[in-house]
Amino acid sequence: NDTLKNFSVMLASGQRYVAIANGVLNPSSFASNPDGKSIAFTLFLKDNIRNASSSSTDVDFIGVHGASDAPTVDIIARNVANLVDNAAYGDITGYLTVPASSYILDVTPGADNTTIVASFIADLSTLGGGAAVVFASGFLDPMMNQNGAAFGLWAALPNGTVVEFPTTSTARLQVIHNAADPGAASVDVYVNGARLLDDFAFRTATPYIDVPAGVELNIGVAPGTSTSVADTLKNFQVSLTNGQTYVA
What we know:
Layout: E1 18-22, E2 42-46, E3 58-65, E4 73-77, E5 81-87, E6 96-99, E7 102-109, E8 118-123, E9 131-137, E10 152-156, E11 162-165, E12 170-174, E13 186-191, E14 194-201, E15 209-212, E16 216-223, E17 234-239, E18 245-247
Parallel strand pairs: 3-9, 12-18
Antiparallel strand pairs: 1-2, 3-6, 4-5, 4-7, 7-8, 9-10, 10-11, 12-15, 13-14, 13-16, 16-17
C-alpha cells in the first residue's frame, strides 16, 4: 500500500535482465531534460544481459544514460576510442568489449567532442573475464535539482557490487629545454613545490607526462644543484585544460 509507483513487466524464462530505477517522482520540481526526454520515475529494462565476458582478458559492459538533466553525450576512452556515440537520457547501449585495463573516460556533448563535461578513471584491470553495467547517475547541476547527488559514472557488477569511477582532471605535457644561457645549461624544475625534473639539460626534452589540469600550477626553475623549491630562480603560473595536450 505504500508503493510510490507500479510497473507491470513480463520476463522470459531463462533470460537475464537488468532493471534500472531512474528519474524523479515530481518532474516539475526538477530541471527538465535538454533533449525534451521525460524524466518521470520509471524502469529502464534491458534483456540479454551477460554475467561474464567470453574472454578472460576482456571486460564486457553496457552503458546507461541515467542523468536526467544531461544532454545527449559521447563517452570517449581518452586516446583509445569513442565508446558511446550520441546517447540521450534513457538510452542503453549494446555490449562493448574492451581489454581489462585502466582508462580515462571523457564525457562530452554529443555534437562537440572538444568540450569535456567530466572525466573519470575507469580501472577495469581486475575485471578480466567479467561484465558490468556502467551507468551515468546524478545531476549535472545539483543546485537546480533540489541539491541532489552530483553527476558521476558507476559500474554495477553481476554480484551486486557497485563501483564508483573517481573523477580526474589531467593534461599531457612535454617540456623542452631551449634556454641557451650557459648559466642554465642544467636546471631542476619544480611543480607546486615538488621536484619534477632533475638536472634537465639544454636541448633535451621530456616524454609526454600526465599533469593536473583545471588548477593553477606553479612551475619553478632552479639550478641543477638545487636542494629544494626555495632555490628556484624563476616561477611561472599556468593552468591547463582537462584533456588537452601541451608542449612547453
